[in-house]
Design goal:
Helix content: 55-70%
Strand order of the largest sheet: 1-2-4-3
Oligomer: single chain
Number of helices: 10
Largest sheet: 4 strands, mixed
Order of helices and strands: EHEEHEHHHHHHHH
Length: 314
Amino acid sequence: MAVYSMTGFSQATQGSANGSDETAPRTAGAAGGVTVEARSVNSRFLDVGLRLPDELRGLEPALRELVGAHFKRGKIELRVVSQRESENAWPQPQPDQLNRLSRLESTITGWLPLARPLSVNEALQWCRQGGSAERLDEAALAAAREAVAGLREARGREGARLVAILTERIAHLRELAVQAAPLVPAVVKRQQQRFLERWQEALQNAGAGGGNSNAGSGMTADALRDRALNEAAAYALRIDVAEELSRLSAHLDELTRLLAAGGEVGKRLDFLIQELQREANTLGSKSSALELTNISVEMKVAIEQMREQVQNIE
């Protein structure tokens, strides 16, 4: 299943919108034409806006149902423009229209014998207006279906581009994690060594040495050394980022799986991006080496780029 963006645009026209479309359906061409523009931007939920001419207000429920059947998220606007035939253009009366008009005239003259007969011009004007609304509705619905399908395709094409960008960012984050992994043991060992050296200096300054007891604490130098090792081990646990790197890798695996599965994954991707950001922040805060700090900064930049793209996914 594909991944869809929430941004896109499409346009469709049904009927003789330009007044010379000989390939348009006869029913639509008799009433004019309809152009539908569909545009979409990102939104947390589905927000449908309709801009309809007065003669097509009755189509609002059908159009909302049509959009809701194809999209789940996004701010979508459907703009419908009706373009009737020019006033100077001759209408094409249909037999059923002329039959109805004849019956109406017979009824009226039966009740009002002095009423004058309809002129050809009046009959043509009646045929132009009578029954055109239904044909315009048909053209509007057909154009709307075509525009919605086009918008779906446009969002699919944009979604494919977003997947390519996200896949590239995921690969970059994996490379950064690979670079950080071998640095962790070395950083921990280096910090332990520094801790012990400073502890030893403190003991020497306090007068502890050899196997003699420390007058201030009553502890031997060996006992103090064991305590220093314990403190160094506890400190090493606080700065060890192996767990963060492991969780980050797991989140990247889940992101890859969701992008491959497709469908309505935008909200789940957004949650995973937040988790990635949390791991990168923890990595930076626990880092005690410039190398890991730089990697953490690069990770945050890549994750922020991903977040901006994920905001556009349905």
